[in-house]
Amino acid sequence: MILTVNIGNTNTTLGLYKDKELVADWRITTDKLKTSDEYGLLLLNLFAHRRLDPRQVKAIVISSVVPPVIGVWERMCEQYFGIEPMMVGPGIKTGLSIKTENPKEVGADRIVNAVAGLGKYGAPVIVIDLGTATTFDVVSRQGEYIGGAIAPGVAISADALVQRTAQLPRVELVRPRQVIGKNTISSMQAGVMYGAIGQMTEIVRRIKEELGSDAFVVATGGLAPVICPGSCEINKIDPFLTLEGLRIIYERNR
Fold first, then answer.
1. Inter-CA distances, 16 with 65, 67, 153, 206, 236, Å
2. I need a labelling partner for 6 at 20 to 30 A (CA). Which of 14, 68, 112, 217 fits?
3. Tell me, what's the pLDDT at 231?
4. What pairing do the DSSP bridges indicate for beta strands 133-139 and 125-130?
5. Which of 57, 87, 117 is the last residue of a domain?
6. Is 117 within a domain?
7. Are residue 73 and residue 110 in the same domain, yes or no?
8. Are 76 and 121 contained in the same domain?
9. Are strands 2-7 and 59-64 parallel, antiparallel or unpaired?
10. How far apart are CA 22 and CA 153, in angstroms?
11. What is the C-alpha separation between 171 and 140, in angstroms, rounded?
């Protein structure tokens, strides 16, 4: 089996694949202070809870946008699984031609998402990842990664609203039934959530305009199921897109 790991700024998602089938998935907090032993014991407990045997893991592939934890995860993989993990980065075969000014500065997670979007849905494709940041990644009709956009994540926007005002409380990130809020909580939820929907819809519209054609739009990330149903631009919500991209990249480098 293959263990895929996507280390984000807020959460780390993991997927266990048997051939091409996702047999288990987990979401844990990304903690820069955790040691390799703490992560190792956490993963062993997750496996045990699902009655899975960690000895069946034959390969581990990791993408990370948090440099301080990369070494910790590498040591954990070697100590607890006896495996040297494959790290997504320069030198890894992705099968994707990157046509940006500086390909090396494109985040590993964005490349992985583009690989999965192209592999599963064809070209042109727009991948939206609603994580700590909201990213928009574009693969052209020629199958080339041509760039995208990065916006503040929904949770970051909501936190900033609370931190920079004196009387606004922290609210749950759910989509209210109407935009016209009848109290402070529903008003904040309407502004944050429908604002995110409007931002996403407009950016996608402008990307398609610059492409000069329509494109398949797929959304992933923790908040995708909450926000994306409100936009007419989204063709598919795929919560495991990044994990699938990691599996595809592993297969191309095996």
1. 20, 23, 27, 37, 22
2. 217
3. 86
4. antiparallel
5. 87
6. yes
7. no
8. no
9. parallel
10. 27
11. 38
Given the structure tokens 């926000």, which residue do they identify?
Answer: 227
- Kindly indicate the confidence band of residue 189, based on its pLDDT and cuts at 50, 70 and 90: very high
Least confident range of 20-24, 71-75, 207-211, 225-229: 225-229
Contact of 110 with 137, CB cutoff 8 Å? yes
From 19, 25, 37, 109, active-site residue:
109
Instruction: Please tell me what DSSP assigns to residue 78.
Output: I
Q: Looking at 90-183, list the stretches that DSSP marks H as alpha helix, in order from N- to C-terminal side.
A: 108-121, 154-163
Residue in 118, 1, 113 with CA at minimum distance from that of residue 56: 1
Residue 252 belongs to a domain: no
Domain shared by 126 and 171, yes or no: yes
Active site annotation includes 109:
yes
Write phi, then psi, for 29 (nearest 5 degrees): -75, 135
pLDDT digits (tens, 9 = 90+) for 101-141: 999 899 999 999 999 999 999 999 999 999 999 999 999 99
- What contacts 242, CB < 8 A, 6 or more positions away? 6, 13, 63, 109, 112, 113, 116, 129, 220
Decide which of 63, 87, 111 is a domain's last residue: 87
> How, if at all, do strands 216-220 and 236-237 pair?
parallel
- The residue range of the domain holding 113 is 97-241
230: burial class by Cβ within 10 Å (0-12, 13-18, 19+)?
middle
Give me the phi and psi of 137, to 5 degrees please: -120, 135
Residues paired with 216 in a beta bridge: 125
CATH number at residue 125: 3.30.420.40
